[in-house]
Model the fold of this input.
Amino acid sequence: MRDKLRLDPAQIARARTAATRIATDLDSFIAKRTTVAVERTVLRLMGVDGVDSEGVPLPNVVVDHLLQKGELEKGAAFWTVNAGVQYGLTPQQVAERVASGSLDLTSVSRSDGETLRREGNRLAVAGLNRIAANRKEREDRIRRWGEGRKPYLYVIVATGDIYEDVIQGKSAARQGADIVAVIRSTGQSLIDYVPFGATREGFGGTYATQENFRLMRKGLDEVGEEEGRYIRLCNYCSGLCMPEIAAMGAMERLDVMLNDALYGILFRDINMQRTLIDQAFSRMINGYAGIMINTGEDNYLTTADAVEAAHTVLASQFINEQFALRSGLPPEQMGLGHAFEINPDLEDGFLLELAQAQMARQIFPEAPLKYMPPTKHMTGNIFKGHLQDAMFNLVSIMTGQGVQLLGMMTEAMHTPHIHDRKLAIENAQYIFNNARHLGEEIMFRPGGRMEQRAQEVLNRAVAMLEDVEKIGLFTALERGMLADVKRSRTGGKGLSGVLEKGQDYYNPLETELRKRVGLPRREEEQAHGCGLETD
Done:
């Protein structure tokens, strides 16, 4: 698979060099800033959960309290750990007292730096050890039960009612699904808090909550034991609560999470500064938890032409790869996205799709690429749609994709029924079984149409990445260079939740995470001793 298309290795290297510089430039911007979502995530990982008397999540209560006092730039951990040390309280108890109005965190006497450091580290270790135990449990279950062969068969449930989702998810797993994804309720990515508890009233999907994660995980484990096959659970952490939902997924043993700041910027109008900062921390959590991320490049082709804009997908994949590496997320957890979206009436459209998929497979050989089905050109003709999905499945097995989000013959008509999913699974199983090793037997003509097409896409991606390197990713997004969508660096949702870190900023979770995933400490942490000075 690595050299079936004789792509120019020098061009691939140029693309990675440009993407590395783009990501490095942004990383220096990210390092100096935090967000309200990052600070709420720190509290959750230290054990803060639940809601106040009015239903406001306690992590929001504490962070909003510190914002109002003008002291969040020190970090939520600084104040929470300090109050816990002074009064002998857990972070949960500290949050509850803040919520009741009986505790002002900023008026508490300061403990010495060494005591704060020791207690913060203890809390960070305990929170991350819980995630490590979940990762080990996943690995143990896969060892005992095994799992489906790649490409994983990935299907969605989207009833709005978590209890109905569990029933449908278990049904899909029994039919052969390897990954069950619970679609989020419409608009959840734009709310700046995480709903609490089990929910039954979602629209176009079901709210992502920690309790909903727990319920679905339990249901899929039950089927996994029956079937003797581990079933992976997927949900979405893109949006204004990206790192919080990543942490909740890690605590409830999710296996796959959609995690892509570029998707949020382009398709949800989330402020680019906010979501790129959030993404960095969320990917550290995903990486440590062993969660495969999925990125959203497939969506670019819903707003831009799949033939003309193919290079933007590849360019974005290179950028996402580098952002992931900077968060300690290894290639084998990078479900970089792309899609089968060329107009089916175009002559040689299948050839172009095959070239794109093979190119991506060769350039990212260790990544479990997430391949998305035809959606833009589905017409409601279910027979033609089923054939389009079959051709999509054939490309996938021929090119060794990792995750196959199955197309439904009723795509764009309604939320899939149970029988629609069954037909989609049967379609993929039939083609995957009958063409399992077809790709190994086929060589592509040197200098032929496929090779020329792939090299053209690569060359255009290199040119684009080098342009972005010169102007910066923020400017490129403002100019609409990705997906033909323009966004403002000071517009969109969530910018008010971004703040510069103070000189005494403290985040023991990030410090411990960076150590565990093999990332160097931030320069400012080394300069300021993790923000804690001995009084």
Q: What stands out?
A: The first strand starts at residue 33 and ends at 35.
